[in-house]
Design a protein that fits this description.
The protein is mainly β. The protein has one helix at about 110-115, and strands at about 10, 15-20, 30-35, 40-45, 65, 75-80, 90-95, 100-105, 125-130, 130-135. It has a five-stranded antiparallel beta sheet with strand order 9-8-7-6-10, with no helix packed on it. Strands 2-3-4 form a three-stranded antiparallel beta sheet, with no helix packed on it. About 20% of the residues are buried.
C-alpha cells in the first residue's frame, strides 16, 4: 500500500512525489507527480498498491518503494547518529546488511579498516540508526 511517509520511484527510475493516497476514487486513490526525464512533472493516478493499471498488470510507470541508501557507495562520507538527541558524526559508509546501515568503525575508511582488523571481526563496522548526506559546504 502506498504511503505518504515513504519515498518512491517508478520502475523506470523516475522521481515520484506522492500528493495524496486518499483521492475519492475506488480504483485510483493515489495521486502523484512524476518527474520525467526532461525535468517536467506529470500528474498520474495509481491504485492503492502503486499500479498504473487496476488489473495489476506490470507497467514501467508503477510505483516502487525507494531507499536512498541504495545510492550510497563504499567509503562515501555521510553523517550518522543513533538517536535524535545525538550529535551527527562523520563516518565512511561500508554497506547495508539485513536492512541496517554499516559504517567503517572508528572513523576509518575501508583502506584502513580492511588492513587493521580481521575479516570476521564484528567491530570492523558500526551499525547506525540514522543517516543523512554529508556536504562539506553545508554550514
Amino acid at each position: 500500500m502506498i504511503s505518504m511517509d515513504k519515498q518512491y520511484r517508478t520502475r523506470l527510475g523516475h522521481h515520484v512525489r506522492v500528493l495524496c493516497v486518499d483521492r475519492v476514487n475506488d480504483s485510483y486513490p493515489v495521486v502523484a507527480l512524476i518527474t520525467m526525464f526532461n525535468g517536467e512533472e506529470d500528474t498520474e493516478i495509481f491504485t492503492e498498491n502503486g499500479s498504473m493499471y487496476d488489473d495489476g498488470s506490470p507497467n514501467d510507470m508503477d510505483l516502487v518503494e525507494y531507499d536512498a541508501r541504495s545510492e550510497l557507495i563504499n567509503d562515501q562520507l555521510i553523517l550518522v547518529r543513533d538517536y535524535d538527541q545525538d550529535a551527527w558524526v562523520l563516518r565512511h559508509f561500508a554497506f547495508i546488511k539485513n536492512g541496517k546501515l554499516h559504517c567503517w568503525a572508528k572513523g576509518q575508511s575501508s583502506a584502513i579498516a580492511i588492513f587493521s582488523t580481521p575479516d570476521d571481526d564484528p567491530n570492523r563496522t558500526t551499525v547506525w540508526e540514522q543517516w543523512k548526506p554529508y556536504s562539506p559546504t553545508a554550514a
